[in-house]
Design brief:
This protein is 9% helix and 36% strand. The chain is mainly β. It has one domain. Strands 1, 2, 3, 4, 5, 7, 8, 9 and 12 form a 9-stranded antiparallel sheet that branches. A 3-stranded antiparallel sheet has the order 6-11-10, with no helix packed on it.
Amino acid sequence: MLFTKVFTAIALASGMVAAAPFAEGTPFKFGVTVSGKTLYLKANGMGTANKAEGVSCTIVDKSLSCDGKTAPKFGGDMIQLKLQAGKSQGWSLGDTTPGAKAAPISWVPSAGPSKKFSFRSGDEIWAESCPHGHFPLHGTASAYLA
């Protein structure tokens, strides 16, 4: 017992034990992966393979903010993720294992079910909740440490 307390104190003092990498408010790059291809969100709703070109995002109180803007209001059954002014609610980060480089992102607005994420022509990034599916392949959205 004494050994555990001493080791924990040494680890904390030396920085060996860090805070959870995906705590609320931690900056991240918003990435969507479909069939092994990951694209990072840009403000215009397009994706880029270059992580550095993607917007920097945070999630605080279930609200997504990316470079001072947010996702569009979800209306209908699908929408391109072109960033705009305002607040977009219903966002959350999933659990990760220690040392993970990404955390799953989910979007469940008050207006309906969890959204699926997809690519469309020209590397556009879309969210969809349509039951028949407009896109043949869906992927996952993840927060990647910035």
